[in-house]
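User: Please predict the structure of the protein below. I'd like the answer in structure-token form so I can feed it into my own downstream comparison script.

Assistant: Understood. Taking the following sequence of 235 residues as input:
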Amino acid sequence: MYFQYGQEETEYLSGKDEKLGAVIAQVGRVNREVDTDLFPAVVHHIVGQQISTKAQATIWQRMRGALGTVDAEHILEAGNEQLQLLGISCRKAEYITDFARKIQNGEFDLEGIWQKPDEEVIRELSALKGIGVWTAEMILLFCMQRPDVFSYDDLAIQRGLRMVYHHRKIDRKLFEKYRRRFSPYCSVASLYLWAAAGGAVPGLKDYAPKKKAPAKKAAPAGSHTEKTSKVQQKG
């Protein structure tokens, strides 16, 4: 199942913004898969944090094979040790079992959250262990299919904005300007900015300032060989 949108959203965005409209025309329809089952969607996002998409898919396949159904009951039956045997880190296993426990004892209302506004959903999800604001926003979009999600913490969206609008940097004030322009269809705008950031539009480039190469260390007096300093790269 893909994120649902149609002509109404794309025509609105194209009418509001000529440059985004050009991207929409070039890219065509964007099909992004969604998972509307909230519990496994949350677990899937926790599993995928700070690992590659391939590693996430491998672990997820193991989980589904071992548990049968990824729900609170099966998670708690498995426990932390069994989850770790599937390739999940100790900390993530604790996050997942803590979430399952909150579902089972009624501390987190899995059904009721669907009726709440975006900001409240983000607040409740990000209060869970292992779920930050960005992850909550991705769950809003790719699980709950909310139409107006625009994540400042998403580096690919910032990259897409730089590429489409030729900005060197996206600060919060500039980001909010685009949020207001794209609302109430920020989620669809996000799909196209992700596509642009991923190279779907030939000729676009990232206008972020290039990082300078580290300078070479001068050779000591009397030395016949030049040594270069080791520069620790920032993560």
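That's the full token string. Confidence is low (pLDDT under 50) at residues 218-235.
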